[in-house]
Amino acid sequence: MASHFQLLGKDPASAARRGRLTTRHGVVETPIFMPVGTQGTVKAVTPVHLRDIGAQIILGNTYHLNLRPTSELIRELGGLHAFMGWDGPILTDSGGFQVFSLSKLREIGDDGVSFQSHLDGAKLFLGPREVMGIQANLGSDIAMVLDECPPWPVDRDACAVACARSLRWATRCKAIATESGFLAAGHHVFAIAQGSTYDDLRREAAEALAALDFPGYAVGGVSVGEPEPEMLKQVAATTPYLPEGKPRYTMGLGTPPQILRMIALGVDMFDCVLPSRVARNGLAFTPHGPINLRNEKYRKDPRPVVEGLDNYTCRTFSRAYLRHLITSGEMLGGTLVTIHNLHFYLDLLAQARAHIERGDYAAWHQAWIARYAQPE
Amino acid sequence: MASHFQLLGKDPASAARRGRLTTRHGVVETPIFMPVGTQGTVKAVTPVHLRDIGAQIILGNTYHLNLRPTSELIRELGGLHAFMGWDGPILTDSGGFQVFSLSKLREIGDDGVSFQSHLDGAKLFLGPREVMGIQANLGSDIAMVLDECPPWPVDRDACAVACARSLRWATRCKAIATESGFLAAGHHVFAIAQGSTYDDLRREAAEALAALDFPGYAVGGVSVGEPEPEMLKQVAATTPYLPEGKPRYTMGLGTPPQILRMIALGVDMFDCVLPSRVARNGLAFTPHGPINLRNEKYRKDPRPVVEGLDNYTCRTFSRAYLRHLITSGEMLGGTLVTIHNLHFYLDLLAQARAHIERGDYAAWHQAWIARYAQPE
Question: How many angstroms separate the Cα of B23 from the Cα of each of A58, A137, B347?
Fold first, then answer.
């Protein structure tokens, strides 16, 4: 049986990889950016427009969906794909990260995490069995294991405890996914390697999880407040110890330059709310950095956000029109800039794939990042 | 030269008419509903989805667009069609109605209306020359004359003064549109017949305007607070005196039963913010009346809003999903229910056209209205 992940090629001058990931809902070309659909919707955009901009795979948030409308309800209604009208692949996180960032009164134990809902204070518990059950209810194509993400900074002992607990939970999640037939049915489960800023703990975590032979791996605990060089250092301290033949994912990242740099470190998958979140405030991405469409200087600007970029927003509308919508408080402004920003990310990743294939990724990504820092 | 309006057929048992209106941006089959794009956008919906639900013509609001971003800016950017990415026909109102309903400190004189912007208090003036100039800047396919819409109730003398002034302004607007070449270039200008609840004033206004040979006519001053029977009575008191060979339009109306009843009185064109405005609060139209998707009883409802209705929302999403979006405050909820509600109206008018063609409109519309009053 062919592997679910094919490594199609590598960049000669960096660790960038070109791959192809097969899921129950189709094939994903990597490196890939995954638009985030937190509450069962990529905010402000219909799946019609998502398909149109070339989205291959999207993300759902287990924590949010489990609170509302609940994973049981979604299962009753045919799973998350049917529920939200998206028939492509869906990756879901475990919910653990949001338990730490959003919920109240959380208490962590060896069996999992007790916490209170940020919506209504209801007492809830997430352990390996719960997160795998919820993600099975959702019908996730790629489920993430429960892990403990240490804060930044964290002392070495506390980090080692979190790594040990994360390894036990990962082991348990894989066992559950095996026993339940989830893996055999072609769903994937990805492990998450923690270790904070401790290179040896990162290596240890990566190697221990690699030995468990997961279908994919995430570098966890990055973008939790640490400076960018530290973040890249942590990724670089992890990827060499992850199995080459499995996809690699950094969760919740990042700016365009960050993503390009992490591709150069051998990361294959990315998700981030940034392009859609800032879009609703009128911030639009361009090859010369983001521009704020509320700015008076765009009032009469007849140009598209990015000349020649083949998405609905750039093909159809001027900066002046988008500015008018945003300053008038019209919902359509957020929708059209979200379409553009998500496509900007998706197109950037498509360019990255082409340059890896061509073998000039290293030079190209440096030049791209340099231009991005120069306003038009 | 063929007329811009062809009367294709009439219902034997009512005054309903089937027509075809040709504009600079395409043909409109009547009776027709026109989605409202107040500020250069049909709220919450991309033109892609508008086309998909079969919108033939949309409405723009002169008052709003003239304040922001201004009609001069829209002209510089190629006109309203290019500005908002809609290449179908656009009808614009004169702005007069909003001057009366939204602006501050208005003062009406024989030359026009002085008023203050509701946005920033700027002092502005709208007379026949201004409203025709603004609508020419916008590139409107169908421009409306400036009129004075009397409030309800209004005494007979005040109403007669408003009618006389409206007639002078209409005459002036037509002269301006003729001299400027606006009419010769294939733009249409519609007159507006006022008269409030005074049948003889309505007849007088309609006949005087008919004598001026406008490309189309609106029944004005309806839906300004009067009870529904009064509204229908006013329409019935006007349409017999409008030229049969020209399209007829009631502005800002209405509920589905109201529209069907006005079609039976010989009205051809309708616009209303109702379906899109209520959509953003979760109210969805069905053949059994509107339903409130926030209601707990839809929490697990796997059915589409309307079974078998061929629009994106009904083809793809359950009531449970729409409820989830709306109760979670997700923008996509408003977008998807707007798509449905506008399509519901457009489809209702398509059904009306088919029944007029078949010659059974009178019976069909009575049955439709009766069912609409019976909850499912």
Answer: 43, 53, 22
